[in-house]
Specification:
Structural class: alpha+beta
Order of helices and strands: HHHHHEEHEEEE
Distance between the termini: 70 Å
Strand order of the largest sheet: 2-1-6-5-4-3
Number of strands: 6
Radius of gyration: 27 Å
Oligomer: single chain
Length: 156
């Protein structure tokens, strides 16, 4: 491509068409480059994706199966006063048991924070006639964000 551009430039210089050669080079090289740089903000919007939206949805629905898709292969899960380092399947069973005992009525994320590849959220869960504080820690790996720690405690 550059060889073709140089050949075009040389031909125009020989004929005294420097302005035309420069316009041609600008159209061939700079216009596509400018257009591609203008498209970058569209790709940067992926950084604004809120991983907690689907997670909160599944907690609010009491859907342990879909929630477990967000679990890391191994995670720390604390429900009321029982804490376990669990596999994804064990954590799914723990959450299913919790949702069976305390049917969720609503769940709302009240606070989020984090940096680069680690985030956390705090939320209020109304389930089974009680209120619970939910803490969720996620980290980013090559395949996306995964829940590393999930904690559900009774509010006092």
């Amino acid at each position: 491509m550059w060889l073709g551009i140089c050949n075009i430039h040389a031909r125009y210089l020989e004929k005294g068409y420097l302005k035309s050669a420069m316009k041609r080079i600008l159209n061939i090289v700079l216009l596509p480059l400018t257009l591609s740089l203008m498209a970058l903000p569209a790709f940067a919007q992926d950084d604004t994706y809120d991983v907690f939206v689907p997670i909160a949805k599944y907690i609010g629905q009491g859907n342990a199966g879909k929630l477990s898709a967000w679990f890391a292969d191994n995670l720390e899960i604390t429900v009321i006063s029982s804490s376990n380092d669990s596999s994804r399947n064990q954590a799914r069973q723990i959450m299913k048991s919790f949702f069976d005992s305390y049917t969720p009525r609503s769940f709302e994320i009240t606070h989020t924070a984090g940096r680069s590849n680690m985030k956390y959220a705090l939320g209020a869960l109304n389930a089974g006639g009680e209120m619970f504080m939910v803490t969720i820690f996620v980290s980013y790996s090559g395949s996306g964000y995964r829940i590393q720690q999930l904690k559900i405690e009774r509010m006092r």
